Amino acid sequence: MTTSRSKAAAPAVNHAALPYETIALVLQGGGALGSYQAGVFEGLHEASIPLNWVAGISIGALNTALIAGNAPEHRVERLRAFWERICQPAVFPVFPALFETALLDNSIDQFRTFFTATQAASAMLQGQEGFFVPRFPPPMPGFTNHPDKVSWYDTSPLRDTLLEFCDFDRINSGGIRVSVGAVNVGTGNLVCFDNAHMQLQPEHFMASGALPPAFPPIEIDGQYYWDGGLVSNTPLQDVLGAQPRRDTLAFQVDLWSARGPLPHSMAEVAERQKDVQYSSRTRQITDTMQREQHYRKILHQLLEQIPQARRKSDPWCVEAQKMACGGKYNVQHLIYQEKPYEKNYKDYQFGLSTMRDHWATGLADIRKTLAVKNGLALPKNESGFITHDIHRKPK
User: Fold this and answer.
1) For 239, phi and psi rounded to 5 degrees?
2) Which of 59, 225, 282, 372 is most buried by its number of CB atoms within 10 A?
3) How many CA atoms lie within 13 A of 192 on its CB side?
4) Which helix (H) or strand (E) covers residue 370, if one does?
């Protein structure tokens, strides 16, 4: 079985010698839309892009665990097996698998809208296999519950699924850097769980995706954590701001688009609200980082005009040296473009046909991205910082 209807081959480009010290994959949160990220990764894998850092939040954190927790030659198949698992209803199938496959190739938008609404309703009523199930009894108003019971769904099945599909010894071996974001419920602060500084376990990835009130907070070392998307739905700033600064190529994969049409119904209002809330204003982040990098490069060039001895002795020069940077940054931005039949429930619209459609879209988008001539080259502009998005219309 293949997850893509596209027959296009990967670009015939040698990516093995890319001129970057850091090549990162950055994965946004977005629930069921996360299979788009899996398609993007498949395209990076087939093009032999040598990733050395994967960072994610929410569903992006789960995809991060699947990628970092498996040998390179098994990552795509393990991602596929994971998504095939969690896109099955927890109890009863909504539609036969053959029907879903036929629908993917012969769908009409009006019918597909009804079909996907049914998938979303199934997720709400019975949960998803190996991921979450409705909590019984549910939390009742006026009653005090243990913190890890205050949610509509129980995510304990996800821990077993992660242990089945991920090798946490491999994740913690340091072969590839792993970062996932979560919010400390008590302090409200966004924290970064990073295998460069700690041993990561299933709970760290579950915490990153513990979106309230659907999912319960996850306890780690006596502290409780919720979904990192409550504060920031992308760890891009952590990757681009890492010290020491290095030439970096980052593939930022977003599941929500900051740009969209004006709503004309309450359902469209709910959908647009999610788009704005979870898009994380990635372009705003990259614009800010580009300006900062321009200033760092100016400072770097100015310091070059100062004698080496003074640079080492003058306290102002020493401080300036810490802030200066001549590094180069290339951000490849991939944003999922919603389909006409998708509505405000698209983030919990789990289903095999929908998952395969998202996956195929991600694979097609990364192939187009990698086919851009010199798209992955080191920036040659003054700031040393460039962004690229195949879906963004030129100004």
Assistant:
1) -70, -45
2) 59
3) 19
4) helix 352-371
Tokens encoding 236 = 């891009």
Beta strands 329-335 and 177-184: pairing type? Answer: unpaired
Give me the average pLDDT of each 10-residue run along the chain (395 residues). Answer: 44 67 96 97 97 97 98 97 95 67 58 81 94 91 84 97 98 96 96 96 98 96 95 88 89 90 87 82 74 82 88 87 82 90 89 92 97 93 87 68
Per-residue model confidence (pLDDT) at position 131: 98
Cβ atoms < 10 Å from Cβ of 129:
18
Q: Look at residue 220 in the predicted model and tell me its pLDDT.
A: 97
8 A C-beta contact, residue 290 and residue 387: yes
pLDDT for position 343: 85
Q: Encoding tokens for residue 395?
A: 């100004």
- Per-residue model confidence (pLDDT) at position 65: 98
Please tell me whether the overall predicted TM-score, pTM, comes out greater than 0.85 for this model.
yes
Rounded to the nearest 10 degrees, the angle between the axes of helix 352-371 and helix 35-46 is 40
Report CA Rg, the chain.
22
Residues 6+ apart with CB under 8 A from 131: 86, 90, 155, 157, 158, 161
Tally the residues of the chain: 395
Pairwise CA distance, residues 346 & 368, whole Å: 24
Which DSSP state fits 327?
Answer: -
The strand pairing partners of 232, in sequence order, are none
What per-residue confidence (pLDDT) applies to 172?
97
Distance CA 83, CA 91 (A): 17
CB contact set of 230 (below 8 Å; sequence gap of 6+): 183, 211, 212
Please give the Cα distance from 17 to 367 (Å, whole number): 18
Nearest to 92 by CA among 69, 121, 116, 115: 121
Q: What is the model's pLDDT at position 350?
A: 92
Torsion 366-370-372-378 (CA) sign:
positive
Give the other-Cβ count within 10 Å of 11's Cβ. Answer: 18
CA 258 vs. chain centroid, Å, equals 15
Which residue has 């009006």 as its token pair? 110
Neighbours of 330 (CB within 10 A): 23
* Cα end-to-end span (Å), the chain: 41
Q: What counts of helices (H) and strands (E) characterise the chain?
A: 14, 11
